[in-house]
């Protein structure tokens, strides 16, 4: 494209359309014991990222033991039958590696990265930790004690209290309704329950092994995978929790937190998952409503009405359900105006189509953020892991920007009508009931509940 | 066994515009992302008495708009393209970055060049930003545990020369006293092309990038560079101690520090390796002996150039210091003694070669991992240019760290990390009656 010698500085330069992402080649296979293996060559840096992902996230916590999966994940790397914590720490340092366990509501992940030359060694450590963790009593006690400290700190945060109540309301009896361990569940977690969780869920036919990076030649790589994981014994799996969710209806709960000077407002309901046809329209609509400093909620609730420092909306994308939530925090005196402003913005999304400028800006926003999120090997590995563990189509990453860009205003309006309708929204406010219960009555029946301490 | 892989070579194209602006381009077309990184050779240490906080105030002014970019548009253009941006003030430089999808290169250059050329320095903008800086101070320093101790008390205790010891955030009094003329003068002097380094990393085509950079920046006039202030500290440090009563802290902490060697001297490399042994990674001595072992520490963090810099942007004079958050059943003196004892083990017994081998691998892995981000590559290229005039050190400096011997580590521990040269700041929780 020829360019004039002098440039026009008075307005932002015209630029070419947003580039697309080219997925590196993916090789997939399955071991005889059921481990799904995914190899992705990423030759940019002499590093390898590994994920052992298991369908054993916190929704698989046994009844009465919320938080158990998370505790198991943290303890895996604290010692095995043949390696103490110190041995593991020194071996990891000596091969330039990291390795740690964590959980999401759906997935249990043992993840790490290593200098490419030491790929075989980290794979060996990962297998040892996944198969042979021995959960020393002192480490179990320490982990439970730290989890209690963390929980105590969290319970002092209004956002945590709001999430806790909101998730309990929208997910009903489904285990998604627990946002964390409880003091009681931590007390009940014996070493036995920890071992039992591992033995039940950390089994090969429930696992995906993903390796991304400068890998050894494929036959050699697969031989290593066989060597470390072939002995892992296949087992029948318990059924996943039934996808039973309560229907969406208008409910309003005020969580009483005496002494609060501000009110945290959460408004939302169950929404589309990534595989639902409504997903992309809802994704773009959610961004226009509450994604970042140019969104409607930010411009109206914060900039125009000066009601809050922050106002935004979120889309939680779980395997079995999505959740749409609009969030803000206002001073006690403004609580009724705050709820009203949020509800108004939600209604408007369904009442009129979004503008052409909003559509372009927010598609660029979503696509740009997506491309930037693929920059490092770890983030690429996370994205591929997501596609595989959440059962998304193989072209999900390559087609993401195309699918976002094809969303039409009419589809957004329809999605807003379905998911942003105040009539069947769950509303949770956390604040001082003595100060704010009265002004909230105008929104209909409000149930006042105590926050657990 | 697979042989150790060489570190990837980061391509570098370095040149200077006619107006003196240094440009470093590094092409990497793997992911459609670019980082624009703009460094100005001005930091808090050049500030004059009565003008503390000026470098930081100025960083805020840079987002207030310019001749062709209305207020707010800088944020909007970057964010509406999914990008990220920020600016930050350091003792020895001020930097700004934009990470964008690669089709937006021209937009980033337009934004950075317009504010270098024509920043909107008005009374209204200045008043706004004085308030914003005060608000930032209230929220992120005055109201946050440990922040005042780190940001204000530590430099005051550790340095003798006012240029080094004064507050980087500045005092409300000095901020209030600054005028539009002061700000305009500061802008003209320091925000000139010949006082700046522009780094562009990522999915670019070199000829196109060069052409655009020339078009956007080529005709911004150079200025006369001012002389740099004397930052020298007295040659023989003495022990210093201080106590800060922190109204927001719930857990006690101690900062222990020692004046560090010159940037890129043999002692600097040896100290960096010593730091890995003491505090780097899951098997460091502090981790295994103090967090586990004695179970006295909760958390620790060490830097050469503490608290504002780290190894890659350290510029002497400065300290190697470690922040130690500890359990309340240990006294601060016990914690200082335990830290000093870990250092004494190295002074007396030297370094096990296997432990050093682990530390080298750890450092190599950290370095290569960090290079994946285009922003981090840009920062390293910029720092090596601004401090050393050699951006190519991004590819070669690692071997200077890896070449450090056990004897050099023992020597640097003996020479630098002694109680006679030590500064200690205790941070005691001092909860207010009403909270």
Task: Tell me about this structure.
The complex is a heterodimer of chains A (453) and B (435). Chain A contains 16 helices and twelve strands. Chain A has helices at residues 68-75, 85-94, 119-132, 137-155, 158-171, 183-188, 191-201, 218-229, 279-290, 296-304, 335-351, 356-372, 377-389, 396-405, 409-419, 433-440, and strands spanning 26-30, 36-41, 47-54, 98-103, 108-115, 207-213, 251-256, 262-271, 311-317, 322-331, 426-431, 447-450. Chain A is globular, with a radius of gyration of 24 Å. The termini of chain A are far apart. With 453 residues, chain A is α+β, with helices and mostly antiparallel strands. Chain A has two domains: 26-229, Metalloenzyme, LuxS/M16 peptidase-like (Cytochrome Bc1 Complex, Chain A, domain 1); 251-450, Metalloenzyme, LuxS/M16 peptidase-like (Cytochrome Bc1 Complex, Chain A, domain 1, 2-Layer Sandwich). Chain B has two domains: 13-217, Metalloenzyme, LuxS/M16 peptidase-like (Cytochrome Bc1 Complex, Chain A, domain 1, 2-Layer Sandwich); 240-429, Cytochrome Bc1 Complex, Chain A, domain 1 (2-Layer Sandwich). Chain B is built from 16 helices and eleven strands. In chain B, the strands form two sheets. In chain B, strands 1-2-6-3-5-4 form a six-stranded mixed beta sheet, with helices on both faces. In chain B, strands 7-11-8-10-9 form a five-stranded mixed beta sheet, sandwiched between helices. The radius of gyration of chain B is 23 Å and the shape is globular. Chain B is an alpha+beta fold and 435 residues long. Chain B has helices at residues 54-61, 73-79, 105-118, 123-142, 147-158, 162-165, 172-177, 180-190, 206-217, 266-279, 285-291, 332-349, 353-370, 374-388, 393-402, 406-416, and strands at 13-16, 22-27, 33-40, 84-89, 94-101, 196-202, 240-246, 253-259, 297-306, 319-326, 423-429. In chain B, strand 1 and strand 2 form a beta hairpin. Chains A and B meet through helix 2, strand 5 and helix 12 of A and helix 2, strand 5, helix 3, helix 9 and helix 13 of B.
């Amino acid at each position: 494209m020829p360019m004039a010698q002098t440039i026009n500085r008075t307005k932002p330069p015209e630029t070419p359309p947003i580039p697309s992402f080219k997925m590196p080649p993916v090789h997939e296979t399955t071991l005889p014991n059921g481990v799904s293996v995914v190899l992705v060559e990423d030759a940019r840096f002499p590093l390898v990222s590994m994920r052992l992902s298991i369908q054993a996230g916190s929704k698989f916590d046994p009844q009465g033991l919320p938080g158990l999966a998370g505790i198991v994940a943290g303890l895996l790397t604290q010692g095995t039958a043949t390696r103490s914590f110190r041995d593991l720490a020194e071996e990891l340092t000596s091969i330039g590696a990291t390795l740690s366990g964590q959980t999401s509501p759906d997935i249990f992940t043992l993840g790490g990265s290593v200098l490419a030359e030491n790929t075989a060694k980290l794979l060996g450590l990962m297998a040892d930790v996944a198969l042979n963790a021995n959960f020393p009593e002192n480490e179990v006690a320490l982990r439970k004690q730290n989890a209690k400290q963390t929980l105590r700190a969290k319970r002092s945060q209004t956002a945590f209290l709001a999430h806790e109540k909101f998730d309990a309301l929208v997910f009903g009896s489904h285990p998604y309704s627990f946002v964390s361990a409880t003091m009681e569940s931590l007390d009940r977690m014996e070493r036995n329950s920890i071992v039992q969780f591992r033995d039940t869920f950390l089994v090969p036919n429930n696992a995906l092994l993903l390796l991304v990076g400068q890998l050894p030649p494929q036959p050699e790589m697969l031989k290593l995978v066989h060597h470390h994981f072939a002995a892992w014994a296949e087992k029948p799996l318990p059924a996943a929790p039934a996808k039973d969710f309560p229907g969406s209806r208008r409910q309003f709960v005020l969580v009483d937190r005496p002494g609060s000077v501000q009110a945290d407002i959460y408004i939302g309901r169950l929404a589309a998952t990534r595989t639902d046809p409504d997903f992309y329209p809802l994704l773009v609509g959610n961004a226009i409503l509450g994604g970042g400093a140019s969104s409607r909620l930010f411009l109206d609730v914060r900039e125009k009405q000066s009601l809050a420092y922050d106002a935004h909306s979120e889309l939680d994308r779980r395997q079995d359900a999505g959740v749409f939530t609009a969030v803000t925090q206002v001073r006690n005196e403004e609580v009724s105006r705050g709820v009203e402003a949020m509800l108004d913005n939600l209604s408007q999304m369904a009442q009129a189509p979004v503008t052409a400028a909003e559509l372009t800006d927010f598609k660029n926003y979503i696509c740009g953020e997506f491309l930037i999120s693929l920059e490092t090997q770890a983030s690429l590995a996370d994205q591929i892991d997501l596609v595989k563990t959440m059962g998304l189509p193989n072209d999900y990453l390559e087609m993401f920007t195309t699918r976002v860009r094809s969303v039409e205003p009419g589809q957004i309006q329809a999605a807003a009508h379905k998911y942003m309708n105040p009539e069947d929204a769950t509303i949770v406010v956390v604040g001082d009931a003595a100060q704010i219960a009265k002004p909230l009555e105008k929104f209909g029946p409000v149930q006042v509940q105590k926050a657990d301490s | 066994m697979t042989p150790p892989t060489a570190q990837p070579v980061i391509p570098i194209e370095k040149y200077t515009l006619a107006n003196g602006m240094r440009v470093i381009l590094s092409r990497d077309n793997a992911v459609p992302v670019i980082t624009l990184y703009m460094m100005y050779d001005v930091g808090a240490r050049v500030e004059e008495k009565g003008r503390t906080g000026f470098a930081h105030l100025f960083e805020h002014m840079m987002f207030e708009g310019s001749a062709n970019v209305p207020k707010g548009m800088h944020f909007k253009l970057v964010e509406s393209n999914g990008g990220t941006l920020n600016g930050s003030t350091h003792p020895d430089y001020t930097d700004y970055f934009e990470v964008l999808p690669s089709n937006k290169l021209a937009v980033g250059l337009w934004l950075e060049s317009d504010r270098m050329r024509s920043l909107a320095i008005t009374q209204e903008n200045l008043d706004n930003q004085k308030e914003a800086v005060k608000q930032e101070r209230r929220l992120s320093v005055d109201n946050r545990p440990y922040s005042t101790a780190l940001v204000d008390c530590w430099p005051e205790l550790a340095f003798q020369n006012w240029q080094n010891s004064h507050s980087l955030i500045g005092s409300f009094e000095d901020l209030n006293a600054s005028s539009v003329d002061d700000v305009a003068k500061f802008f003209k002097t320091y925000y000139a092309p010949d006082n700046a380094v522009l780094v562009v990393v990522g999915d670019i085509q070199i000829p196109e990038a060069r052409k655009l950079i020339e078009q956007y920046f080529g005709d911004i006039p150079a200025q006369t560079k001012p002389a740099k202030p004397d930052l020298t500290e007295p040659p023989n440090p003495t022990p210093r101690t201080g106590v800060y009563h922190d109204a927001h802290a719930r857990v006690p902490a101690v900062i222990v520090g020692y004046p560090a060697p010159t940037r890129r001297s043999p002692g600097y490399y040896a100290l960096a390796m010593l730091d890995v042994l003491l505090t780097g990674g899951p098997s460091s001595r502090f981790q295994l002996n103090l967090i586990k072992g004695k179970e006295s520490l909760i958390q620790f963090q060490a830097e050469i150039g503490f608290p504002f810099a780290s190894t890659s942007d350290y510029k002497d004079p400065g300290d190697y210091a470690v922040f130690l958050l500890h359990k309340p059943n240990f006294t601060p003196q016990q914690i200082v003694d335990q830290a000093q004892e870990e250092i004494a083990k190295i002074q007396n017994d030297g370094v096990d070669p296997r432990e050093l081998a682990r530390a080298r691998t750890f450092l190599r892995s950290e370095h290569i991992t960090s290079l994946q981000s285009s922003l981090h590559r840009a920062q390293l290229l910029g720092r090596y240019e601004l401090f050393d005039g050699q951006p190519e050190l991004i590819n070669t400096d690692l071997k200077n760290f890896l070449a450090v011997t056990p004897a050099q580590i023992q020597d640097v521990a003996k020479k630098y990390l002694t109680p006679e040269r030590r500064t200690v700041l205790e941070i005691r929780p001092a909860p207010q009656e009403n909270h």
